[in-house]
Amino acid sequence: xxxxxxxxxxxxLVRKALDNRxxxxxxxxxxxxxxxxxxxxxxxxxxxxxxxxxMYQMRQWYKPLxxxxxxxxxxxxxxxxxxxxxxxxxxxxxxxxxxTVRDVERFLATQEIRVVLYVNQNTRNFQMFRYxxxxxxxxxxxxxxxxxxxxxQYKAYDYALVAGQAARDRLSRVLWDYDVTTRTIExxxxxxxxxxGVLPYTPDDRIVVLYAPTWEGDRPSAHYGSILSHGESLVSxxxxxxxxxxxxxxxPRSGVVSPAYGRAHQxxxxxxxxxxxxxxxxxxxxxxxPELGWQLSSADVAVVDVSAMVYDRLAADKPLLITRPxxxxxxxxxxxxxSDCEWLDASRSADFVGDIDRVRTDPAAVAKLxxxxxxxxxxxxxGSSTRRFHAAIGFLMTEWERWYAASAxxxxxxxxxxxxxxxxxxxxx
Length: 429
Hints:
429 residues, 6-stranded parallel β-sheet, globular, 15 helices, single chain, alpha/beta, 13 strands
């Protein structure tokens, strides 16, 4: 059994190496076809060291970044060949493929990058931190109450753009000697101003339920995924009512750690296909597309796991339920929204449909939702988050000018002193 496992791992590594090599060739050919980037053009860079498996972290920023680029041109510094290939094939900002540190240095030498944005905590971010005279800013790939949101790595960045007061409260509770007031800037959820995509169904009188579970997690403290514990029962119950439409959007990594979790996911996909075959008017959806937007804005109710999807949906200001993790070791932050949310317990599988119908109309649930939406995102009026995002970048640009001017003045003063010292030395000689 051990030998077979080693063989499978070796084959997987070889395949990965071949894919990376093929991707690198493709990216360089595509870059040559597009031509070089104009010199001294870009002011904002998004640093992305991951491969295509984590493209969901970048995709949600495409449209906010495109809007930002109208004022401050944006480029993505992609360190991975498969990531760069995916970016070039999608509606991403311009891409600079910089697999080595030398490549990074060469590109930076041709541009005036003043702000570097980071969407995740890849360990290779540290390689970019070496470059001073620019702001390093963590923007993350979502808002949530997972332990990931309070990592001490926040201290490595000059600033962090956060959704709202809830994020500041969370960081204040956990991080020692971290000045939340000056090093975080609230911007809401700019992605909510750019919901995109075309509905894959024709709206009717059915209640649309978005079920968006996360993956199974790679350790007990992160076992938030609900496909095995809740998912099959939930989807089966909704498919049977005849008055609900299911939009099933699982995390793209579902099943990468647990084969059983992956098989449960496949059974849900098969059940949706069978329900549609039995009644074409049902128009249930298995959604594995790259765009995230229409799902959040169109669903009457959302059922999500403890993940960034909780807060993506919360930003839409519409009813939701959160699946309660069944693993007692799963870490759940009970200081914020999860202390007062509408939980969906696996033990209540017989009442899942009733719970979903209740949160749509119950006055207490509606009022509670409104309170937490404001606490996490502030003003959610259309365009508000985009204005705050642009204002935050504008502030950083102004600060860059101020610090650059001060450093230039200091350098001039030092150069003058050195000149005088050289003259004095020469006179003594």
